[in-house]
Amino acid sequence: LLEAIRDPLTHIIRNAVDHGLEDAAARLAVGKPETGTVSLRARHEGGQVIVEISDDGAGLNLEAIGAKVVDRGLMSAEAVADLSERELANLVFLPGLSTAKAITKVSGRGVGMDVVKRSIDEIGGTIDIQTELGKGTVFTLRIPLTLAIIPALRVRCADERYLIPQLNVLELHRVDPTAPIELVGDT
């Protein structure tokens, strides 16, 4: 799983550092600490791995993103005006779209956010953006655990074999095969 998300994760972190965080003077001018923070959190939740990359930077400028989309002829101004904030934020995944004023060695390596989205889509995951201007941005990756990597309990009953995901195992009892098993009714 880590191998599959290494490149998209690296790109998101590089973008957060290069585009998300303001320089020290700009941060101090708006009352933020001089040093910005990029956080990476991961957890397992309901058969998925949730990875969050957040920064306390400037947030996405949704107006600039919409204007760039219209300017490049990817959508009409009317269509952009009808989009919600979440839909505007997701426009960053359009191929070749960038609102960066300058290309740098940190994030400008010819890899766009469309490649990040495609990589996550290929493994059956999703990516979501939450942003607030002046407060920061959170990218949330939801990646399903496949049967190939889910810890499972292997059991055999007669000639049948079963794999039960450990996520679904509530209790486990070891039964002595030589001990008698008591029946209550038909159970």
- Main sheet attributes: strand count, strand direction, barrel closure: 4 strands, antiparallel
Which class of secondary structure composition applies to the elements? alpha+beta
Q: What is the gyration radius calculated from CA atoms?
A: 24 Å
Mean pLDDT: 86
Number of E-type strands? 6
Give the low-confidence spans: none
How far apart are the first and last residues' alpha carbons, in Å? 41 Å
Helix content: 25-40%
Please trace the helix and strand order, writing H or E for each element. Answer: HHEEHHHHEEEE
Shape: elongated
Describe this structure in words.
The longest helix has 19 residues, at 2-20. The chain has six helices and six strands. α1 (2-20) runs antiparallel to α6. Helices cover 29% and strands 24% of the residues. A four-stranded antiparallel β-sheet has the order 1-2-4-3, with helices on one face. Strands 5-6 form a two-stranded antiparallel ribbon. The chain is an alpha+beta fold and 187 residues long.
